[in-house]
Structure formats: C-alpha cells, structure tokens
Amino acid sequence: MISGGYDLIFEQVTQLSPSILKSEGVPVHRTVQNSGEFVVTFPRAYHCGFNCGFNCAEAVNVAPVDWLVHGQNAVELYSLQCRKTSLSHDKLLFGCAQEAVCALTEATRHEKENLKYIKWSSACGKDGVLTKAIKVMILAYSHL
How far apart are CA 107 and CA 101, in angstroms? Predict the structure, then answer.
C-alpha cells in the first residue's frame, strides 16, 4: 500500500539483498552478461544489475507484440497505485495497429505475403493478440 503517494520500492535506486529475497521464498537467479549478449527480463519480474569495473552499459525496453496484455495490466496497476507509466501504452498500441494495417494493406495491394504481413497477420483477426489488446483498452475506457 502506498502511503502519502511515495514508496521506496518504486524508486529506481532500490536494491534488495538476494539473501532477503530467498529468505522470503522468492526465487533468485544470477547471470553474467558478457559483451554482445542480451538478458531478457519477463513481465512483472523484479530485476537489478551490478557492474564490476569499467563498463559501458545500455538498457532498452522492448517487448514482442504478445506482451501488450502485460502492458495493459501494468497501466491498470499503476493507475490504482497513482503512479505514472514510463511510456504511453495507448500510443504503443495504436502504433502497432497502424503498422499492422499498413503491412496488411501493402500485402493486399501486391497480392503477396511479405515479412511484415506474416509478422502482423497472426496478431490481427478475431483471436489475434493485437485485436484482443485493443478490445481490452476500449473496454477499460468505456468504464471511465
């Protein structure tokens, strides 16, 4: 529960000791990331990093389209906690929809399937991930 609109766990500088997490029954995993390697953190996973010595580090937030539902869940949770999201989920969702429409239209015009078409065709349609995510967002806004 957030008291007074501030909670230390939401600060980016917060780091919990792995031994404390383990003592509370939280599974803890360690990895060593070498140059040129990627580490994927799954939705809702607590993560932290530690650098040993001189380095040049970069972090980028990316997600496949089937993670859109996790984004919507985060938006709803952040709203309940009076927290701001780091990016606009709505803008991301509409950007995905726009790219999907362009890819599907281009494939229809040229009567051939291209890589963009293949990428988006599974996400669209009645049971597509993108379609479901947009429906959830519309439903969320209709209750406001």
Answer: 10
Decide if 140 contacts 68 (C-beta within 8 A). no
Q: What are phi and psi of 46, to 5 degrees?
A: -75, 135
Residue 66 Rama label (left phi>0; alpha psi -120 to 50; beta): alpha
pTM of the model: 0.58
Q: How far is CA 49 from the centre of its chain?
A: 18
The residue length of the chain stands at 144
Tell me if 133 sits within 8 A of 69, measured CB to CB.
yes
Q: What is the pLDDT of residues 62-99, one digit of tens each?
A: 777 778 888 888 888 888 888 888 778 888 888 888 88
Task: Write a three-state SS string for the chain.
Answer: CCECCECHHHCCCCCCCHHHHHHCCCCCCCCCCCCCCCCCCCCCCCCCCCCCCCCCCCCCCCCCHHHHHHHHHHHHHHHHCCCCCCCCHHHHHHHHHHHHHHHHHHHHHHCCCCHHHHHHHCCCCCCCHHHHHHHHHHHHHHCC
